[in-house]
Amino acid sequence: MMTERLSARRRVSVPMVAIQCYLLITVVLYVFGPWKWQDPNMLATVVLLLLIQVVLWIGFGTGRISVEREDPQALRFGAKALDVIVVLGLVVTLLQCLRTLGTIDFLSIRQLVSQGLTDAATQYSASKAGTGQFGGPVLTYAIVLTAPLAWMAIPLSLYHFRELSFPIKIAAVANIVFEVSRWLAIGTNKGVFDVFFVCVAVMALRVLRGWKGLRGRGGAYRKRVVAAVVVIGVLAVAALWVFSNNVGSRVNGHWDYYQITNGNTPIDADAPLMAICPETLKPTLILATSYLTQGYYAFALARLVDWVPLFGAGNSMFLLENIQEATGADLFQLTYQARLEQFDWDPLVNWHSFYVWIANDVGIVGIFAVLFLMGFFFYQVAWDAIELESDIAIVLFCLFAIMFFYLPANNQILSYPTTFMAFWVLFIAWRLTRRRGAMRKGRAK
After folding, report:
1. In this structure, how many other beta carbons lie within 10 angstroms of the beta carbon of residue 432?
2. CB of 271 closer than 8 Å to CB of 4
3. CA 111 to CA 133: how far, in whole Å?
4. Could you say which DSSP state residue 334 is in?
């Protein structure tokens, strides 16, 4: 029994180890990368970032203790419910294509994708100008309200792909193809990376689950791990190429302008990481480091201004915009994001990190409490997803994966309407069902 528990602990801890390594890499990029951030107190920034990681890990460990004191149950959907979710996901994705591209014709979308890959900057500018906004507010409300169900389609169809009927498999593949295509067509990285992280998260769950199921068959397990690593590697290279192509197209070699938009921050050609980077990869290193570390610079600047508490409204652009629409109150002007403009840090162009968004509500000190809770709940979610195969936990695991990746950048999940709705509705549903015996033995066929 003790061996079983230890093995389970190790499986569930793997995702957090990966997250900690990733965050540590971003801190190294911040200090030794090509961007010479004019941090007023670099040492304090680094110490705080490392302390945040420590608190996240402590919260994760506390979550383990809570799980071992409970007997959580898992909510699993039947086959018919899963079919409905996949079909709904495809319908919503097609509506999104209509809304942003003005078409769902595959040949037309393919042409737009080709234009997005060859001239990402033009397609990106056109999308920002609001062209092709089909359906108006009614369609927007419909997409947002159905988000908790529709967002589950890709994670669950990937996780349970073998169990799906052939027509539903076609719908699942079409959903992914159209979802990635609509983002490529407008020269934007976000959706492509979201799908990438969902794929990686689902493969990680399958591999970690297989660690238990393939005990005693080391050769079969190693083959599965190698296959997963190869697939993740290919997807990572593809995602990185899309990122370099899209952002590189916007920069188009104008590094001086890029430095100005990054708070007049110079690029240090003699930085340690630039010195060891191959010449052909230096533009990618510069672009990637900008995206992964500029939020840390905003975190440093935020400590120079006073905190104006926003009591739960300041962590999400989605909330701020809706509050202004409903009441007329422009709370955004009270956020760190708006007030950092005095340092030439554009509130609508530059990134500020998850930490600064959260600090709008809880202050700099309160960030530690929030990260502790995130670690605490993430262990429970990871346990339910890996050990119990809870469908809601599987989806939440993917949402958490995206949230953790964007910690250095912004509050990605809670700032967009669809993921905001998906996260909070599914999180509440997960908390309500995990202790109520809502576990059905076996999946309906």
Report:
1. 12
2. no
3. 18
4. G
Residue with tokens 């370099």: 244
Q: Determine phi and psi for 267, rounding to 5 degrees.
A: -90, 125
Please give the structure tokens belonging to residue 163.
Answer: 């169990």
> Rounded distance, CA 288 to CA 33, Å?
10
* Residue found by looking up tokens 């600047």 in the block: 301
DSSP character for 262? Answer: T
| Contact status, residue 136 vs residue 203, Cβ threshold 8 Å | no
How far is the C-alpha of 152 from the C-alpha of 143, rounded, in Å?
13
Task: Report CA torsion sign: 200, 419, 170, 173.
Answer: negative
Give the three-class secondary structure for 267: strand
Contact 386, 205 (CB under 8 A): yes
- Are 301 and 337 contacting, i.e. CB atoms less than 8 angstroms apart? no
Is it the case that residue 63 has pLDDT exceeding 80?
Answer: yes
What's this model's pTM, rounded to 2 decimal places?
0.91
Burial class (CB in 10 A: 0-12, 13-18, 19+), 37: buried
Amino acid letter, 403: M
Lookup: tokens for 267: 């690029």
Question: pLDDT digits over 103-159, tens only?
Answer: 889 899 989 888 877 776 666 666 655 544 666 788 888 999 999 999 999 999 999
Instruction: Confirm if 117 and 245 have CB atoms less than 8 A apart.
Output: yes
